[in-house]
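Kindly go through the entry underneath: sequence plus fold tokens. Please state briefly how this chain folds according to its tokens.
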Amino acid sequence: MKGLTKLTAVSLAVAAALPIMANAEVLISEYVEGSSNNKAIELYNNSDVAIDLTGYKLVRYKDGDSASLDMVELTDTIAAKSVKVILHPSAAITLPASTDSMTGNLYFNGGDAVGLLKDGVLVDVVGEIPTPAGWGFDTTFQRKLDSLTASTTYDASQWVTLDKDTFSGLGSLDAAVTPEPSTFTCNGATLTNIYDIQGAGDSSPLIASGSYESANEVTVKGIVTSRSDSLYKGFFIQDMQGDNSPYTSDGIFVFLNEAAPDTIQPGTELCVQGKVNEYYGSTQINLKDEQKFEVGALGEVPVASAFYVADGETLTQALERVEGMKVVLDAGSEMKITRTFSYDYDGRRNNMVLSHKAPLMKPTQVFEPNSADSIALAKANTINQLFVESDFKAKDGEVPYFPDFNAEAGYIRVGDQLTNLEGVIGYSYNAYRILPTNLISAGDFIRVNDRTDAPTVADMGDIRVASFNVLNFFNDVVGGDANPSGSNRGALIEEEMVLQRTKIVNALVAMNADVVGLMEIANNGFGELSAIQNLVDALNAELTDDQAYRFVEIEDADKYEDKFIGSDAITVGMLYRPARITLDGAAKVIATPEQHAAEGAQTRDKDGVVEQSPSYDKFQRHSLVQTFSINDEKLTIVVNHLKSKGSGCIEDWAEFNENGEPADLQGKCNSFRVSAAKVLGESLKDVEGDVLVIGDLNAYGKEDPVAVLTDYDASTTDHVIRTASWTTLNGKVYEREGSVIDKGYGLINLNTQAHGADTYSYSYNGELGNLDHALANESLAAKLVGIDDWHINSVESNLFEYGSKYTGELVKTESPFSASDHDPVIIALSYPAPVTPVTPTPEPVQDSDGGSLGYFALMLLGALGLRRRS
């Protein structure tokens, strides 16, 4: 343990015995990534002489990058067998008076490895390169005394992990203190049953109302079912007999705040004594301050109990019944994947989420925002989640409990039912979590809606139109032209870009669409080095001449800086097959509103204090319009990509939502997207012929922008829809104050018409919904043959996408699956070729005298019903 002001005799002996690497006498001995600016790096000189630090510097490897960024150039010297502490200038950290320290620009975060360089060469590092996401968030790492040797390869076993804002060891180094052997014994103690501690309610009956800890200690015996050396820091024990009641749990977690001794293994009989805690909703026995336990014999691990949700209870209620127990998810558990294995921003680690019976739907996909049904579904979703965790943070590209995870046979899809997973039930971060105790295989996933090689409508109708968000397809790494912002949001190396393009091409070939609207393609013009030309060239290389595509190009007068569609780094695009469909006139651009609000444009009252708004300059991508001719009919297609839900507009600031999700669950900048929907509606209301609005509207099925374009009617609902304030359009003031929408523009949601409200093309935070839409006027809706959200992306793990930054050694494939994060939407339409009427030439008909009746006489007889039968 650290904390003394000088080296002990033991640590001196240990340090002196360690080998010293050439040019690496100085090493990192402690890493502190605490709250706010509480950041520190401690260096140790393991040599016998003072060392001049000239030429040494601290660097960081930001969020998984392999290239370093400079932080602090070191100066002065560091004494022999001594430490030097580098602190962030604003750190609230107090060091012992005698500490050798300096301040420096330490701006690493929990996703960064920190390296020590000597004359530009890496000599020591804390954290893997590239670093797993969030690996060091809110954590202190102290180097063990038997590992005081610099190394360019990070080995987690050489470091001790401590809690957030642990500063007590900074400025000194000492040997770990071996604890005295426990003399605690259960002999003569009165035992309390685990199920009596757990009780049948949400908290332990041994804890008084309003308190979080029992008044007295309890003594408990049980069998260890699982250790948790990282996630929970303790172990789970379970009563071998139980009370045979389904309402009380037979298991409980014992908290140590550190890894349990090696003598405590699954199957070990154990007696513990401590107070019962309700720690943020988790019932546990707390041994943190005084470790009172007695280790018994090692025997059999308790058999897992089959988990089930009874009629009339929620998943949360069912999990509360088995909190702390070892359970197995069998076929009768009906647990479905609702978020595949991916990064959890709350837990700062990769994990997976299950729900009972069906994946979760976004409330505003199926119900009007702020409606009673929407609010009820949001609440139901929060209590219908079970996180599947691993004790230690997973390595990049690996699922710890599923070693056969791979892109071809070992995939995981939203909607799959998980079976045969055993684990203990814990609770943290306001959610129940299962910590697996066994490994599963691909056969343990029951595929409910498995992969398909092509969409169901790929060969339907006379023509097909597709909408496809291609997840930042940039060609910068192969010399592509620049976009207006100069930034590259896509592939970072050529290998990634080629893989991304191949996956997109394979998806487009399988779709077999005659027109394709694209979103998130680099906005770098239409030249030979443009992203859209790069994609078309690769696509046509896989097709025959009559299947080949061209892209739609806008006229020079509509181009921003004579080259681009708007000023964003990404844009919309359109491909079409000239052998199947014909351009009718030039493409057009529908400019969308911008929001420009000066500082102080709006005020809000916060606890009686009036605050003025910061300045806001918000933009959204323009829409692309092209009319086509097919079989003498006109079809106008509009491709859109409205403002994202992530960053806020001035309306969010006014409602105190700048740092959180708005209460109506529509995301940030909702009114701004409504403004764009209003402009679209006005621009299209007088278009002749068929109209199809496609693309990523960044709005779910029942949200305001979709409602404005379709069937909203203010007279039938209490839900008020408003546009944004401070908007401009084409450089002129559009709306100084937001206006109320009274009536929608009457387009028809083709997905809803064909399949009902619960369709989806996107998954976010474990909830499914449609951001990608196909909206048609009445004449086009009558031509609908079929529509398909082809689920190649939304339900797949994003670890199979083209990016390699966080996927380690995971093998990627060229299949269409995980080509993007949005599913393509394919619409099959009926445009039959016109039939030319054929006028029949009648044969002469003999009259009773053997003469021929004329044609008009024949018609007259037929009309009178007098035509003779043959």
